[in-house]
Amino acid sequence: MKETSYAFPAPIADAMIRALLEGRKSQIRVPVNNRKWMQVYDGIDYANGADFMGPGIYHPTVIKRGIEQPGPEMFGIYSSDGEWGIPSPLGAPGDRVRFREAWGKTYEPIHWDGGCATNDGTVRYRADYVPVGAIIGPKPEKWRSSHTMPRHLSRISREIVSVRVERVQEISNKDAKAEGAVLSERIKNLQCWHASYRAGFASLWNRAYLPESWCENPLVWVYEVK
Q1: pLDDT computed for residue 71 by the predictor
Q2: Residue segments in the chain with a per-residue pLDDT below the cut of 70
Q3: Which of 17, 96, 116, 172 has its CA 20 to 30 A from that of 70?
Q4: What is the pTM of this model?
Q5: How far apart are CA 179 and CA 94, in angstroms?
Q6: Enclosing H/E stretch for 13
Q7: 108 close to 14: Cβ distance less than 8 angstroms
Q8: Which option is the CATH number for 3-99+151-225: 3.30.160, 2.40.160, 3.40.50, 3.10.400?
Q9: In sequence order, what DSSP letters do the residues of 167-225 get, joined into one string?
Q10: How far, in Å, are 12, 87, 102, 216 from residue 187 at the CA level?
């Protein structure tokens, strides 16, 4: 078993962290970011005619001393002719994902007879301060990026149950709800309603990536976690 860290795209990060904490998110979709793979559609690699396989275990071809031989074991998607493979970015079933999020510290004064100092800092998580009006304590002067979060400060981890690859628009209403999509949410101080959980997920996807990325229907990794 291995562990990877993951941070949601900034525009939807706080909403997704809250969905995890509230037990509303058990699926994660991540774009398959690889130019070679973008030529693949419905199982056919139009670049060289080879079918793709997986997700599963494969051994990429490596060359040692001029001789081709199987490389180290990897988990991901790969071509049936062994020409190329793409490792799963979050891991394989049984691996764990540790989530990073925007964070900061507040420093409260400590008083004693004859003096005053500050403590070492209380860790705060930005997702806890939303929706607006949530009162859980003082705010840090500045929020730090999720990418700067040390591993020991991460408060959420999940185990990967299954991995598959599909087009983002293949998501069902049930799966969209499992992604943490909602029927009503505030976007830029406006209350928005969605006709279905699937429509709510499409809105999340467009905010997380490019505005037209849902319409482009990219290939995605689908992780089920618990």
Answers
A1: 74
A2: 34-51, 82, 109-120, 131-136
A3: 96
A4: 0.84
A5: 20
A6: helix 13-21
A7: no
A8: 3.10.400
A9: EGGG--HHHHHHBT--SEEEETTEEEE-SSHHHHHHHHHHHHS-TTHHHH--EEEEEEE
A10: 10, 34, 19, 22
